[in-house]
Amino acid sequence: MSTAVANQSVHVLEIPTSGVPLILPSAVVAEIVNIGEIISAPQMPSWCIGVAGWRHHGVSIISFEALTGQAATAPGSRGKLVILFPFPGQSRHQFFGFVSTAEPQPHMLTSNEAIGVDSPVASPYIAAAMNINGAIGVVPNFDNLRPALFPAAS
Amino acid sequence: MAQFLRLTVGESSFLLPGSASLGIEKKDKLLINSAGSNVIGWKQDGNNKWPAYAIDNMWNIDPTAPWDRVVYIPASPFPVGIGADSIEMLSDTDIEPAPFTPVGEAPSRYGHLFGAAWVDSDKTYLVINPSGVAGYLLTIGGSA
């Protein structure tokens, strides 16, 4: 079923991964930074690849590929960390991040440019898929992602 | 300013609030457990024996993991010890961790193992949540 995006513009970031690209509303992104030290994440899920330091905060770094059952590879030298704001209503320190295998690309989407398509990956953490300029990316399902990341607060 | 201990396990280091430490014991001061359970040894305290556990850098309880020191933290019904390669009091009084919530489910009903993180230039340290760690060690490790 194809669903046209509402007739309005929205600024998004296309996050390249080792699997299907992520499409994130720019408003949820706090910052994009180079990958520095990522320390181990003891007793955290395997889709959490570690904890990075960012602006005095420890930020859990999530492999969206691993979370959604896709094959994941370590980012190369062009990789970035995409730091997301805490979910609404959660503590202001609960930032989290995704790994980008290259520099994220901005897009301004209108209903003429982005059409919903079937997701190439079946996962409860994927809300929708979109064809942007010929490439298919997936939008995370934040309603399902939130209790997976922070079950005690959900 | 609060003081912190730095626990080094393999290539990983973690911070423990100094206020949570009941004391550091060297290996030769413990009653070593040769019976093969998760407990690596005990500190004799009167008629009580306080168990200690060795961990790997992912905080899996591993009685075969190398350790040289044990730091005891409060727990019920008795303190528990964390074995580490080295345990040192940090003289830096400018350590100001920020709250940190690990993702996913806590490893035991006592909560997550870490409750804060300190970012020092390009180094990041997870700060131990004493109650979470104590409950985890006693629950997973057993006391025998």
Features:
heterodimer, A: 154 residues, mainly beta, three-stranded antiparallel sheet, 2 helices, disordered N terminus, B: six-stranded mixed sheet, six-stranded mixed sheet, globular
Topology of helices and strands:
The complex is a heterodimer of chains A (154) and B (144).
Chain A: E1 10-15, E2 22-25, E3 29-34, E4 38-39, E5 48-54, E6 57-62, H1 64-67, E7 80-84, E8 96-100, E9 105-109, E10 114-117, E11 126-132, E12 135-140, H2 142-149
Parallel strand pairs in A: 6-8
Antiparallel strand pairs in A: 1-2, 1-9, 3-7, 4-5, 5-6, 7-8, 10-11, 11-12
Chain B: E1 4-9, E2 12-17, E3 23-26, E4 31-32, E5 39-45, E6 48-54, E7 69-73, E8 80-84, E9 86-89, E10 98-99, E11 114-120, E12 123-128, H1 130-141
Parallel strand pairs in B: 2-12, 6-8
Antiparallel strand pairs in B: 1-2, 1-9, 3-7, 4-5, 5-6, 7-8, 10-11, 11-12
Structure description:
The complex is a heterodimer of chains A (154) and B (144). Chain A contains 2 helices and 12 strands; from the N terminus they run ββββββαββββββα. Chain A has 154 residues and is mostly beta strands. Chain A has a 6-stranded mixed beta sheet. A 3-stranded antiparallel beta sheet of chain A has the order 2-1-9, with no helix packed on it. The longest helix of chain A has 8 residues, at 142-149. Chain A starts with 9 loop residues before the first strand and ends in a 5-residue tail after the last helix. Chain B is mostly beta strands. In chain B, 8% of the residues lie in helices and 42% in strands. Chain B has 1 helix and 12 strands. The model of chain B has no long low-confidence stretch (mean pLDDT 93). The A-B interface holds A 36-37, 39-45, 48, 51-58, 60, 62, 91, 93-94, 96, 148-153 and B 12, 57-60, 96, 98-107, 112-114, 116-117, 119, 122-126, 136.
